[in-house]
Amino acid sequence: MKITVNAAAKLNLFLDILRRLDNGYHSLFMIMQSVNLYDTVEVSVTLSGKTAVSCSDPSLPSDERNIAFKAAEVFFSRAGIENPGVKIDITKRIPHAAGLAGGSADAAAVLYALNRLFDCRLSETELLNAGAAVGADVPFCLVGGTCLAQNTGDVLSVLPSAPDVRFVLAKPLCSVSTKEAYEAFDECGKISHPDCTGALFCAARGDFHGLLGLAGNVFEQVVEVPDRVRIKTVMRQKGCSCCQMSGSGPTVFGVFDSEKKAAGCAEELKSFIGEVFVCSPVKSGLTEL
After folding, report:
1. Which residues form the domain of 61?
2. Does the annotation count 137 as an active-site position?
3. Which DSSP state fits 220?
């Protein structure tokens, strides 16, 4: 018995940190978008009595340090059933530590697949609560599409779908620690906050281009990314309508209104950036194969 799922990467079209909470987490205001850059996660029953993880990227852990492993442990606890033994095989395509929620997408796929494999019929709310216990981006990765994410990322509101644009993703060779990015934000004396109210007004009425005009990511003020200025310069020269960093970085994305413009931008970026992808928006975070 096995379930195979494609798990989509996410972009932050808008990201603001409202304040640090008493529990040490942060109150967030994010408009998030799934794109068709996928990890493939296969979950199978082994009857070994334990959880095993394998990953196509040898630089990532294949033990309890992998967020997919944690997702399995949380699932069995929340479902109230004993783990008979499962194997999680992850084929990575989403870059690691890139601000694209690759690990969270894998964890969401595990929660979904286990719920199907064991016919536990956990409700969407129960799965979202389990996801929030695993990681801040996991609830969104379970739902996907275009959403407003608030609180610590666990309060989701579905928004009108994005139009048929193209996203060019440029991932420099460096990685960014999310923990260190939040610490840098906390230590920063002054932050300029983007217009949350205006962005939500545009997003809620389906004014995608109005949203792009108000787009912002406060992490850009505290996280240094090599070549970010150069990447944005190329994207603007190639006709993007918006370009900014996703999540805590380092990936920078540009939004284009045509495949031709996006392809031209991607071609130039490939001359000096480690990984470049051209993606489209999708309406779901998870797709069962």
Report:
1. 2-159+284-288
2. yes
3. G
Same domain for 102 and 151, yes or no, is: yes
- The DSSP H or E segment spanning 209 is helix 208-214
Write out pLDDT tens, residues 207-248: 999 999 999 999 999 999 989 999 999 999 999 999 999 999
Whole-prediction pTM: 0.96
- The SS3 assignment for 275 reads strand
Residue 33: beta bridge partners?
11, 146
Listed residue (147, 72, 74, 159) closest to 117, CA to CA: 72
Q: Which of 16, 39, 106, 137 is catalytic?
A: 137
Same-domain check for residues 68 and 102: yes
Q: What is the pLDDT of residues 116-172, one digit of tens each?
A: 999 999 999 999 999 999 999 999 999 999 999 999 999 999 999 999 999 999 999
Q: Does 257 qualify as catalytic in the annotation?
A: no
